[in-house]
Amino acid sequence: MKRHPKHYKEVRQVTKYKYFNKLYGYLNRIDSKGFSDIYDIGTSFNSNDIISGLEVLLKFYEEVEQYEKCAVIKRYQDLVKNKAVDIVA
Question: Would you say residue 19 lies in a domain?
Answer without folding.
Answer: yes
